[in-house]
Amino acid sequence: MKIAFHAPLKSPDHPVPSGDRQMARMLIEALRLAGHDAEVASPLRTFSRDASETAFSARRDEAEQEIARLRRLWQKDGPPDAWFCYHPYYKAPDLIGPRLSAEFSIPYLTAESSYSDRRNKGGWKLAQDEVAAGARQAVVNICFTHRDREGLEEAIANVRCAMLPPFIDVSPFSKPPGTAADACRLMAVAMMRPGDKTDSYRMLARALALVVGLPWRLTIVGDGPARADVVEAFAALPAERLDWRGEVEPRAIPAILAGGDVYVWPGCGEAYGLSYLEAQAAGLPVVAQRTAGVPEVVQDGETGLLTAEGDIESFAAALRRFVGDAALRAQFSERARRFVFERRSISAAAARLGEILGELAGVEK
């Protein structure tokens, strides 16, 4: 199949790295591995930070120009076999695909479409209506988490969904984890942004303060506009325990993780978190909260320990278990690597996408 791929939140070609850009690129690669010809159809970004009918109207005008451009192109060269939209939601609806798919009678598909009734008001309602209409039109909505699937099915009657677990490219993680050191090496990789990310950093700092008597050292990879707030959150901890790496190139992450023992990130508000899969691929067991989409990527009691949301003492207790028991870390490490390499690799995702496109979308390669 010739697939027109679109990511209204952030194009795969966007210059700023993020989890959304990474997943968009991996979806294209997985589609290609499944035997399809997937190409970015439009770089248009419909993201709006704030609810505004004026901003939505401007995005609509931009979308109309893209629709006209693609219509001319398809009339000349022929349309694709399907339109595949990644991550439409109330801040970044797909304003192109549903229109063109209906006009040219091609299947419309979404991946990680999300819908929440609490956003269906005020300035966001116009965008929410577009998300709902797209999900209703889609021959299949591919969901990465059960939470997203439940949200669609509760809000939209007869919506068609299929599950595709979050995945990563495991090829950079072929080396085994490093050897044990005197102090347990804890790792955290995250942007420093206001909101959920800063909340996670603050929770981590408070939990570490409860286990300061144990031998650990924390490596923090990341930077951003909330860096000062993050640094302040860790100010009460011994400076010699903290290794601030700042922002690094994504390709450097596997080697950094390979030097760690445990991945520690509370995950406040995480949709699912690709960093958890990357850490496990590097052989690091995870300590996180049992919240949002985190249980979709960490197997509690098998590849990591998940604690109750907001429970800092339980989070500290999980840290204490891993820091004080190298044998336990080794057991979890082996299971973590096997989980990601066998079940959450890009090749596994390609196989699943092939099934979805062939069976649920009613289209063949």
What are the defining features of this structure?
single chain, 365 residues, alpha/beta, Rossmann fold, 2 domains, six-stranded parallel β-sheet, 12 helices, 12 strands, glycosyltransferase activity, transferase, Glycosyl transferase, Glycosyltransferase_grp1
Outline of the structure:
The chain has 365 residues and is an alpha/beta fold. Helices cover 41% and strands 15% of the residues. The longest helix is centred in the N-terminal third of the chain and has 25 residues, at 53-77.
Distance between the termini: 5 Å
The order of strands across the largest sheet is 2-1-3-4-5-6
Rg result: 21 Å
Discrete helix count = 12
CATH superfamily of the largest domain: Glycogen Phosphorylase B
Number of domains: 2
Protein structure class:
alpha/beta
CATH architecture of the largest domain: 3-Layer(aba) Sandwich
Provide the CATH top-level class of the largest domain. Alpha Beta
- Residues in helices, as a percent range: 40-55%
Order of helices and strands: EHEHEHEHEHEEHEHEHEHEEHHH
What is the global morphology? globular
Low-confidence sequence ranges: none
CATH topology of the largest domain: Rossmann fold
- What is the averaged pLDDT score? 93
Per DSSP, what share of the residues sits in E-state strands of 2 or more residues? 5-15%
Could you tell me the number of beta strands?
A: 12
The main sheet comes to: 6 strands, parallel
